[in-house]
Amino acid sequence: MPSNASASQVRDFTLPCTGGAPFRLSEHRGKTLVLYFYPRDNTPGCTAEGEGFRDLHQALRKAGAEVFGVSRDSLKSHQAFKRKMGLPFELLADAEETACAQFGVIKMKNMYGKQVRGIERSTFVIDSEGGLAREWRGVKVPGHAQEVLDFVKTL
Fold first, then answer.
1. Annotated catalytic residue 46
2. Residue-level pLDDT at 3
């Protein structure tokens, strides 16, 4: 998408953030943002996904992108997960499902034969003008962070 004029604008939202101050989308205008939504701290897929973004963090920053992970876990859970995993980016706590609802990532999923409501692993790239540049839904973790980096380099 060469022209950002065709990208749909992402509505502003505010969420608690591991960095201390709340994350407010509008305060990041001028930067490319990678928002990755994941089901839960300290689970195998979410750990692997966090590692992928952690390991490519410097390359993503060099490409002009800031990374934020989002789940419904508490800020306290996020802080422990971030510390344990050595994540160099902040995690956003969406216990009220504000951003989850806005991005439409809450789905019914099968877990051990039961229907449960949870986050469908999804990633969104928001361009420097606040437009949605790209989205991935139903993400498979292997190679995903690299795919996001490859896309960000095209912006």
1. yes
2. 38
